[in-house]
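Hey all, quick one. A colleague (J.T.) asked me to put the nicotinamide-adenine-dinucleotide job into the tracker so the inputs and the structure tokens live in one place instead of scattered across chat threads. No bug as far as I know, just bookkeeping. Sequence used:
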Amino acid sequence: MKISVIGTGYVGLTVGTCLAETGNDVVCVDKDQEVVDELSEGKLTFHEPALDDLLERNVAEERLTFTTDLEKAVNFGEIIYITVGTPSDGDGSADISAVLEVASSIGRTMEEPKIVVNKSTVPVGTADEVRSTIAGETDEEFHVVSNPEFLKEGNAVDDFMKPDRIVVGTEGEKVRKTLEDLYEPFVRTTGNPILFMDNRSAEMVKYAANTMLASRVSLMNELANLSEKLGADIENVRRGIGYDHRIGTHFIFAGTGYGGSCFPKDVRALISLGKEKDTEMKMAKAIHQVNETQKGILADKIVQYLDGDMTDKKVAVWGLSFKPGTDDMRNAPSINLIEKLIEGRAEVVAHDPVAIDTAREELPEEVVFNEDQYKTLQGAHALAVVTEWKKFRNPNFDRMKEFMEDPAIFDGRNIYDPAKLNNLGFYYEGIGRG
Ligand SMILES: NC(=O)c1ccc[n+]([C@@H]2O[C@H](COP(=O)([O-])OP(=O)(O)OC[C@H]3O[C@@H](n4cnc5c(N)ncnc54)[C@H](O)[C@@H]3O)[C@@H](O)[C@H]2O)c1
């Protein structure tokens, strides 16, 4: 099939590349010329495991091309994906102006019937807005499909190639058949379902999924903070509940709060949707509030350990991206931590395996970056571990001690064994480990 994808961020590029990998001819559009130039050479513009090889191959085999020319792209694909950003507005609602701008351009430029698939995460009812926006510009036939994306950064290719389920909101029978054909290769081996439903339910599924997952994180963090005060260890509690099949093991890790471009914005967007409909989203509000507090917890522990005075104190930070496997810094808990430390006049030296370049744009200019995880510790009075990159799991503790002025570890992901670290002569604090 001939496909156009508008927006080549984490979602759009994954979608475009994976659809090209299954034999489709794909044109991706972005408004950023630099991004388009790099991608046209088969070079990835952000860190995402496995996407680089796929991109290079599909560009080389000429199934995947990039352009800034929206008109050309609109008239190329029989299916047009919208994968632009929908960031939080000041009041927490989702800003869908980029989606509507693209919809309007599609309407203005299309010269034959199209299927417009919205993959951006959008408030319930947006498909109707997209529909009326396009209809305001053209008399050609078109269909609007709501097809939320569930990929995780750091595992995007695998998630897209082997989804647990595919959710498609559409009313048209013919459109349903087209999308079934397009997505069949992705469910062929697993037998996982393609779930067809109405547009509004499909849009709601995405917010429900993210809020559900975020709720588990916030509840575990709340339980962790209480466990700490009661002398219980949240890691034992986690194991104790995780074997319960009704609960399961996913998303029950205590830590420094969730970040990224999705959970924080989608929980807030749901709260805002509730407000619009006079339905207070009490749970969603609590999830958000707990998370906001949690993002400050590691900094509070370090400030307290250093007796409130961080002048002339050096704090090392391991891990900056909002989670391992990505260089995405959007809403990363490391930002809250580092801003608090800098406010308290600490000297901050930070290391991340892939996110130093993106972090530089987000963090205060006082932060010093080091490409070497051990040299980051030189002269440090404390180490904060914020992102659970694999290489931080089993470091050389003797070497760490040699570098550190004061061997104190603040483990924001509970990856170390407190007893082991105490035996090795470290001061240790995790999250919720009484
Ligand atoms: N990142 C994720 O893990 C993830 C997962 C599922 C769903 N989503 C949703 O998918 C959407 C996209 O997310 P993302 O993380 O890929 O965003 P992103 O910010 O990484 O990428 C968006 C891209 O769209 C481009 N763009 C914006 N307006 C444009 C226009 N008018 N024409 C052409 N290009 C334009 C931008 O230049 C950018 O490259 C959001 O709604 C997000 O909530 C994201």
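Adding what we noticed when we looked at it: The mean pLDDT is 97. The domain at 2-197 is CATH 3.40.50.720 (Rossmann fold).
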